[in-house]
Predict the structure.
Amino acid sequence: MKLMGAAVIPVSSGSRTLKDAINEAFRDWVSNIATTHYLMGSVVGPHPYPSMVRDFQSVIGKETREQILKSYQCLPDYIVACVGGGSNAMGMFHPFLNDKDVKLVGVEAAGNGLETGKHAATLSAGSLGVLHGAKSYVLQDKNGQILETHSISAGLDYPGVGPEHSFLKDSGRAAYVSITDTEALEGFQLLCRLEGIIPALESSHAIAHAAKLAGTLKPNQIVVINLSGRGDKDLDIVNKALGAN
Amino acid sequence: MSRLESVFKPKNHKALIAYVTVGYPDVASTLKVVPLLAECGCDIVEPGIPFSDPMADGATIQRANFKALANGVTTAVCLDTVKKLSRKTSIPLLFMTYFNPIYQYGLEKFCHDCVASGIDGLIIPELPPEEAGEIDNFALKSGIDLIYFLAPTSGDDRINLVASKARGFIYLVSIAGVTGARNELPVDLGKFIGRIKQTARQPVCVGFGISTPEQAAQVARTADGVIIGSKLIQLMETDDAAMTTTQSFVRNTRKALDEIKQGLS
């Protein structure tokens, strides 16, 4: 971001995670409203951000649909994508929503495990709430205070999720599962070994789930994994995590 | 006439409204400071229900929120504290908080319990009128006022919308920004207040950034009241003499507001 000319200001308030960075960005925006426009990086926040970001991100879903029809003359059986706020998943899912035979699977971060409370699996373990101007599933305590989250991947470390994912979960159109830090690291290594591609730790959650899923499928069934980011940025974290094992 | 309306009834009386986070630095202090604020000339107090993500607040009130949460202050504790305060003072009390703690408590139950505790109204900075229908129905039924916001950036459409919905008073944010004591306030709020008054019959109170009696008086020349939060929190956290310092600040502010009324300022 600095190379592109941006000033990067670390967040020092609250729990110093993504949710606090969003709070600070909102505060900065309202303080400099005359000269600033707010850009949301995910399908979260108040309307119209979730639909705007979905529409921008849906290029990946449109191209995937077109290319797979060309290459295989059929649609995939499954599409698997990681979900933090859920932008890459929403962009991939959206052009397939009316293709009822395509099963959509969102993979959340189970962190140290759902039972430990140290995770970021909002749809799997959260409840209905209002955060950052949108009503959606939220990780919160019984008093409505937002909980701190944990995931090995910074991009999934968020206690909310895009409201349209909440809708897809409740309507049953998409299914949401979760993958732990340890499983994501295995997914990361799997893609490195098999394809020579270093996936982002976020996307590694999707890879890990797809690998589990593949074991239950027939050889002719097709699974699309959305490889939403590159893992160069995560090598320090991965080295540390694998070195500690 | 509601208690809130009667604050604005005397001609040319400028309302002094104070914000305190419930349970900051502890619940005992809240129980002590609110009656003192009333004694020193505050017309209305806003007890704040702390929230983990107070988006509209600057560093001072954020810190107060986090400390109160660390003290175990919940929505139920706030309702209980207000119930005790209602026995000690008769001035109107408005809860200031964010939507999610109320939503989890249950909107209908919350409005009901607010009335039982002696709350007169609610201030929810992240809740625009377009999204407020559900809670406003319960608030109306319970007879409590929902206070809406305007900012100097608001256009005529928003002024008209807020003027058609607001009860109690309209909360005008002094400046584009978050809460927090400031040295400088925009000079020309008067013109904007004039625009609001063309459509709105509700009193207009100005908050965000007011931190001296002089600023309060300057703002109140055109507004019906001023709201002070961060500055009071800062005074309350100074030292052992905090209560005395807070009291004299509020007395001086009251005096500055009353002098406008008498045309001395």
Notes: The two ends of chain A are 32 Å apart (CA to CA). Chain A has nine helices and six strands.
